[in-house]
Design goal:
The protein is α/β, with parallel strands linked by helices. It is built from 11 helices and 11 strands. InterPro entries: HAD-like_sf, HAD_sf, Pyrimidine_nucleotidase_eu. One of its GO terms (biological process) is nucleotide metabolic process.
Length: 298
């Protein structure tokens, strides 16, 4: 009796894995009946809205974009790389629990932020650094951002990256629409435009729940939208919807970019839909098109 799969052919792509297909289809169907006015999208940024790799090369994260001679010196580059090589394997290690990783992630980002502050980064150089970087949003990003804006669906981006850089990437891709809200690590510049600190509480991969609870609650645009489409590339991203008041339907999509075999099982058990080495927004776009189409909105 099911006809949903015919209407969302993208779910049949070989890169799509689902633990419980019928539950996914039921959730999408419920969201579609409630319509765009009940929907919000919550997404991670680095390696979720941006590509993981392109033509076999890693695409830079917001922190990597700062690795530019305009902003930081060689010594800082070297130290940041050493930190990445130490802590990134821990972040994606399937054999360690989130509790075990948490203090180590705090340690990592705190050290990175301290290094960046020492470099006295200049605000007016950020735009140029983003322009010179090979930052890339996923294929189909324009359709994604434009579609959400057109239907006035809020997009909350919750990122452990650097908010100033993230905003610049979105701006340079011409998709910074009024429905986009960002919770991230923002730089605090002094009156001369030099970085002197990072504002507020540190957001990292495993404390997004706190970020979502404390800050998302204040966003009036998100109220009265009990249906959530959540996008992430890390198991820590699954807590991003914890700030939603009285959620009805939550559909989670996980991008499994790296260490696929080691992490596949945990991703399938955690996300509703898992996209394996998929550098596009095809599946989220197809689901959004289906939810916002008014066929059954009676």
């Amino acid at each position: 009796s099911r006809v949903f799969s015919v209407q969302i052919p993208e779910l049949a792509k070989c890169s799509v894995l689902m633990r419980d297909r019928s539950r996914v289809e039921d959730t999408i169907h419920c969201m579609q009946r409630a319509g765009a006015g009940s929907l919000q999208v919550i997404s991670d940024f680095d390696m979720t809205l941006t590509r993981f790799a392109h033509n076999g090369r890693r695409v830079p994260t917001t922190h990597n974009i700062l690795d530019n001679q305009l902003l930081i010196n060689e010594d800082c580059t070297k130290k940041m790389r050493e930190l990445l090589n130490t802590y990134y394997p821990i972040e994606i290690d399937a054999s360690r629990s989130a509790e075990e990783k948490l203090p180590l992630m705090v340690e990592w980002w705190t050290k990175v932020h301290e290094l960046l502050i020492q470099q006295k980064i200049r605000k007016d150089m950020l735009t140029q650094a983003v322009k010179e970087s090979s930052a890339m949003l996923r294929e189909g990003y324009k359709v994604f951002f434009d579609h959400l804006a057109e239907h006035q669906v809020p997009l909350l981006i919750l990122s452990a990256g650097v908010g100033d850089v993230l905003e610049e990437v979105i701006r340079q891709n011409h998709v910074f629409h009024p429905n986009v809200h960002i919770i991230s690590n923002y730089m605090d510049f002094d009156h001369t435009g030099v970085l002197r600190a990072f504002r507020g509480q540190l957001i990292h991969t495993f404390n997004k729940r706190e970020g979502a609870l404390s800050r998302a609650a204040g966003l009036r645009e998100l109220q009265g939208r009990p249906n959530v489409l959540l996008l992430g590339d890390s198991l820590g991203d699954l807590t991003m919807a914890d700030g939603v008041a009285e959620p009805q339907n939550i559909l989670t999509i996980g991008f499994l970019n790296d260490q696929v075999e080691e992490r596949k099982e945990s991703y399938i058990n955690s996300f509703d839909i898992v996209l394996v080495k998929d550098e596009t927004m095809d599946v989220p776009n197809a689901i959004l098109t289906y939810i916002t189409s008014s066929r059954d909105n009676k």
